[in-house]
């Protein structure tokens, strides 16, 4: 019998039969794990995105196994009071659930998700948190954008676009003739201190959305969650 | 096979009902067969009546024999209040309290990125139209205390007029609840939203 105990984030909870529940958690050291637990009602208080301590037991590593959850003091409650921030957590859990392979440890993603949950209740911009995490996830999974220099000229200054094919930056001068085919680069991606306007956030979410769809979700026959459009600035939703 | 094919079929259908398994379905069927006239016939009649007469209300989604339902038609109901619930069972729970006298709207689920439940699946446009048509003054969200429900509240709220009063059921310690057994999130919410005596 294999027994694992770890900190985890609850990703999904589904009823199994009348009383059972199938849980998927993202553990810090053992990656994504699924397991069965008895009693739906006992697990009613555990919600998507909540940090828990889990004990997973199974005869072999590949079995579904059983899961025991114990809640941890967390920053979860303030999130429930801010529906827009709750939506961000829901979407991030969707990415982790759909894009990370089972049993593959990603402590960096786990820590980043924990940090997002800690920052979200007080962060001034929920779309910024989403865009930053999406960019981080793309980098972790090997599809990060290369903003070091212009792909055409090698210039390191005045980068204004990103190629939708390669994910490499393009300078304003080199990209001008093709601007309608390139993705506009938000200035706050080049300088961490730069403020992100609603228009910049829209640009950032378009870039991350494009690469998530093309490189990660599309090959898995998945699409970006429709609810993500509700985090875009109001005027831009129609074109999202 | 001890039971005939007909009985096997009946057990199979009964076992799919909530609260039933193979064993309890067998027991229920046997009980009904022993009391054919006293229990089975009235049950068949009652189920047939329900099947033939009960429909989902085109206004609110509640189940009733008339369409629009009795709640939507009632002149005693406050038409300026609309309570949004996830399912008919939640509507029944609210009605049991006897404290709410407005109208309802049954969503039939909650939005979820994980399960790909989108606004069009829940007919949110119908809810928004109703709010407009009825000239509702207050929308009360009586949804489960879950992340998906909060997401649903956010999406609906965004589509409603800003001037509208939008409220949500309170979260905290249930009556008779013991602090020692309370989960951390509930206790934390109760503390944050404590009231002045």
Explain this structure.
The complex is a heterodimer of chains A (240) and B (197). With 240 residues, chain A is an alpha+beta fold. Chain A is built from six helices and eight strands, in the order βββββααααββαβα. In chain A, the strands form two sheets. Chain A has a five-stranded antiparallel β-sheet. A three-stranded antiparallel β-sheet of chain A has the order 7-6-8. In chain A, β2 (20-27) and β3 form a beta hairpin. Mean pLDDT of chain A is 88; it is low at 235-240. Chain B has 197 residues and is of the alpha/beta class. Chain B contains nine helices and six strands; from the N terminus they run αααββαβαβααβαβα. Chain B has helices at 5-14, 22-34, 36-53, 70-73, 88-97, 119-122, 124-134, 147-159, 184-192, and strands at residues 55-56, 63-64, 78-85, 102-106, 138-142, 165-168. The model of chain B has no long low-confidence stretch (mean pLDDT 90). The radius of gyration of chain B is 22 Å and the shape is globular. Helix content of chain B is 47%, strand content 13%. In chain B, the strands form two sheets. In chain B, strands 4-3-5-6 form a four-stranded parallel β-sheet, with helices on both faces. Chain B has a two-stranded antiparallel ribbon with strand order 1-2. In chain B, β3, α5 and β4 (102-106) form a beta-alpha-beta unit. Chains A and B meet through α1 and α2 of A and α8 and α9 of B.
Oligomer: heterodimer
Unreliable residue runs of chain A: 235-240
The H/E string of chain A reads: EEEEEHHHHEEHEH
**Distance between the terminal alpha carbons of chain A, to the nearest Å?**
49 Å
Distance between the termini of chain B: 68 Å
Please give the share of residues in helix of chain A: 25-40%
Just give the CATH class of the largest domain in chain B. Answer: Alpha Beta
SS-derived structural category of chain B = alpha/beta
Number of helices of chain A: 6
Strand order of the largest sheet of chain A: 3-2-1-4-5
Computed over alpha carbons, the radius of gyration of chain B is 22 Å
Helix content of chain B: 40-55%
- The helix-and-strand class of chain A reads alpha+beta
* Proportion of residues in β-strands of chain A: 15-25%
**What is the CATH topology classification name of the largest domain in chain B?**
Dna Topoisomerase Vi A Subunit, Chain: A, domain 2
Total DSSP helices of chain B: 9
Find the count of extended strands of chain A (DSSP E, 2+ residues): 8
Give the rounded overall mean pLDDT of chain A: 88
Shape of chain A: elongated
């Amino acid at each position: 019998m294999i027994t694992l105990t770890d900190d985890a984030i609850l990703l999904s909870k589904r009823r199994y039969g009348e009383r059972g529940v199938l849980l998927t958690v993202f553990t810090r050291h053992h990656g994504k794990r699924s397991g069965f637990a008895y009693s739906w009602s006992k697990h009613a208080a555990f919600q998507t995105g909540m940090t828990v301590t889990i004990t997973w037991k199974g005869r072999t590593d590949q079995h579904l196994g059983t899961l025991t959850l114990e809640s941890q003091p967390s920053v979860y409650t303030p999130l429930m009071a801010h529906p827009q921030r709750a939506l961000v957590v829901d979407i991030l859990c969707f990415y982790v659930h759909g894009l990370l392979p089972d049993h593959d440890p990603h402590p960096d993603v786990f820590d980043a998700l924990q940090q997002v949950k800690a920052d979200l209740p007080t962060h001034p911009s929920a779309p910024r948190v989403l865009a930053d995490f999406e960019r981080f996830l793309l980098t972790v999974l090997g599809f990060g954008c290369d903003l070091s220099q212009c792909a055409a000229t090698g210039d390191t200054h005045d980068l204004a676009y990103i190629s939708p094919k390669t994910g490499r930056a393009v300078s304003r001068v080199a990209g001008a003739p093709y601007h309608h085919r390139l993705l506009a680069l938000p200035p706050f991606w080049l300088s961490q201190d730069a403020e992100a306007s609603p228009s910049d956030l829209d640009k950032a979410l378009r870039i991350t959305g494009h690469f998530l769809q093309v490189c990660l979700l599309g090959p898995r026959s998945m699409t970006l969650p429709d609810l993500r459009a509700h985090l875009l600035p109001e005027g831009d939703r129609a074109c999202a | 096979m001890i039971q005939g094919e007909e009985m096997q079929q009946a057990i199979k259908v009964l076992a799919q009902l909530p609260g039933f398994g193979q064993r309890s379905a067998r027991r229920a069927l046997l009980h009904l067969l022993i009391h054919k006239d006293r229990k089975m016939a009235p049950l068949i009649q009652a189920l047939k009546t329900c099947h033939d007469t009960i429909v989902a209300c085109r206004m609110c989604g509640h189940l009733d024999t008339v369409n629009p339902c009795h709640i939507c038609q009632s002149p005693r109901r406050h038409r300026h209040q609309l309570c949004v619930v996830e399912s008919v069972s939640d509507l029944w729970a609210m009605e049991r309290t006897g404290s709410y006298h407005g109208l309802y709207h049954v969503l039939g689920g909650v939005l979820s990125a994980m399960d790909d439940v989108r606004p069009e699946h829940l007919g949110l446009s119908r809810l928004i139209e109703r709010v407009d048509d009825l000239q509702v003054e207050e929308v009360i969200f009586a949804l489960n205390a879950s992340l998906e429900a909060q997401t649903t509240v956010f999406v609906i709220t965004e589509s409603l007029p800003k001037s509208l009063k939008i409220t949500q059921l309170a979260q905290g310690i249930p009556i008779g609840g013991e602090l020692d057994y309370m989960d951390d999130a509930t206790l934390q919410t109760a503390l944050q939203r404590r009231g002045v005596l």
